[in-house]
Structure formats: structure tokens, C-alpha cells
Amino acid sequence: MGDFNGIGPEVVLKHLSQTDLNFSTPVIIGSENVFQFYEKALKLHVDRHRITKSEEIKEGLVNIISISEITEAEIQPTKITKKAGLESMRAVEYGINSCLAGQADALVTAPISKEAIHKAGFNYPGHTEFLAEKTGTEIVTMILATDRLRVGLLTGHIPIKHVAGSINTNDIVYKIESLHKSLVENFGIETPKIAVMGLNPHAGDGGVLGTEEAEFIVPAISEVKKKGIHADGPFPADGFFGSQKHNQYDAILAMYHDQGLIPFKALSFGKGVNFTAGLPIIRTSPDHGTAYDIAGQNKANPESFAAAYNLAVKMARIKRKD
Q1: Do 264 and 151 touch, CB atoms closer than 8 A?
Q2: Does the predicted TM-score (pTM) go above 0.85?
Q3: Averaged pLDDT in 10-residue chunks for the chain of 322 residues
Q4: What is the count of structural domains for the chain?
């Protein structure tokens, strides 16, 4: 359900109110009281089948399992609270365990608040790091995706001042390999082409503006090419996106968060999906946050959540070879 004081419950309700249940069976993890509150406040309605355990799930219905005791007084749209942070993470953990146990095929997470989860004692930069720890995964790759554009990140939620010192050839090789594997196994692309961005302006300009390209990125690209992976670069990020070169590749590996996410969000028009590659489970989420400023006002656009849900269904079908 995400942070129940944000737009998570709203986008879930809006999407599930128009989902064709012939192709998937959604199970909402969170609180019945939360969804009753938002249905009343937003004049939305989704018929839900209440369950207490996975064995009670009914196909062709929207199922809901209440794992949280949340009173109406605790639901405070637009507010950052410890309770909302705690219950959002409890729901995520329940979803992770459901997937690991084979009770669910994929996990779609609505937005959480980093500030709220920190209030609740969860010292993680976000979902991704929590998912990695709970699934015993050492290294994951954040991928932002639409039907035509996929951007993976070498480094994730770290301060910009630490980015250059975090780059090395081994990590770049691993991330390119992880991105390639995900494109084949999760996205169903048989022979993907990957573009690798440079770190510095003009991709270092021959060493004048930085040496990380020559020291780390070029050797990494050479190594993966020897393994049969189609990877090109390093490209200057501004010229690459400005010249529409991204249309020639199945995915892009960016060196840091904003280098990849700024062009992605500018080009995705609010329909992007966050996918975490490298996990033993399928996990997607919308590419936006809690949007506290519009929570509870019936203004949230469910398109990104819908895209996240539909991509999770598609990936689950690829995995099951349906």
C-alpha cells in the first residue's frame, strides 16, 4: 500500500478499479481501514475479497490482506508520521516474504517516504536497499523502464561527492552483465544492445576533464564485449540523449542517479517504472514519490503505478513461460 499518508492507496485503488482481472490476481497488502478511508474520501470503489492468508486468495478478484491495525485517526494525508513509515515497510516485508515463499509471482510497491521510514527506525536510503538485504542479495541494479527506454544505474542513493570514488572496473562489468541478463530474462530481449555513459563532462574529453573513463569504464566495456555482450561507450550523457541516440539501444547504464533519472523522467512523461534487477524476486514500483502535497485530493495520476503493475505481470509471465 505504500505510505498511507501519501498517494499510494489512491493510485492502487484507481488502477485496480479498471484492471482486467482475467490476466492477473492482485493481492493488496496493508490495511482494510486505509482503503475504506480513501474510497470514502475520494468516492472510489473497488470490490475486495478479504483474506487472512495466501491460501484464501481467489482468482478473478481483488484480494486484500490486512496486516496492520490502523485507526482512522492515524490516517493523516499529507503528514509524515512514524506510524505510516512503520506500516509501509511492514507491508513491503510481507510482500517480499510472500514472493520468496512462492505465494506471489511479483511484488509491486507503492511509494514510501524515506523520512517516515527513518522515523520508524528503518535506516535504509529506500526500498532497493531494504529489498536487497531481506532477499540476501549483495548487489542489485536499479532500472527505470518504459516500453522503449530502460536506464540502469551504476551507483544509486549516494551523495554526489562520493560517486567518483565509488566507480571501479569490476562493478561496471557486474552492472553491465546484470543489465544484460535482466534484459534477456525479465524483458524478453534476446540480443540486447547496451549504451554506457561516461562519468565526466564530454566523457572526460580525452583525459582533460577526468580520467575515470580511461581507467575504469573503457576497460569494463572491453571485458564484457569479450563475453559476447553488446556494449558501447562511454558516451557523453548530454550529447547522447540530446541527439536521440537512446533510441538505438535497448538500455543505458548511467554512472549515477541524476545522470540517468533526469533524462528518463523527462522522456517517460510520468509512465516510468522502477525495476530492481538482481533480486531473486520480481519487484516493480512507480517512478514517483509519495506526493504528500496532493495526497487525499483525488489528483494523483495512476499511470505510473499501472505501468509498474502491468510490467510485473508481463515479467511474471515471461518467468513462467506462459
Answers
A1: yes
A2: yes
A3: 97 95 95 96 92 91 94 96 97 96 96 95 87 92 92 93 96 96 93 97 94 97 98 96 96 96 90 92 95 96 96 93 66
A4: 2
Q: Which letter does DSSP use for residue 193 in this model?
A: E
139, amino acid identity: I
Do 155 and 252 reside in the same domain of the chain? yes
Grid cell digits, residue 152:
540502469
Query: Pairing state of beta strands 141-145 and 273-277?
Result: antiparallel
Give the model's pLDDT for residue 322: 54
d(CA 39, CA 166): 46
- In contact, 284 and 273? CB cutoff 8 Å: yes
Q: Are residues 143 and 92 in the same domain?
A: no
Beta strands 62-66 and 48-51 are parallel
Identify whether the C-beta of residue 247 lies closer than 8 Å to the C-beta of residue 150.
Answer: no
Q: Are 180 and 252 in contact (CB under 8 A)?
A: no
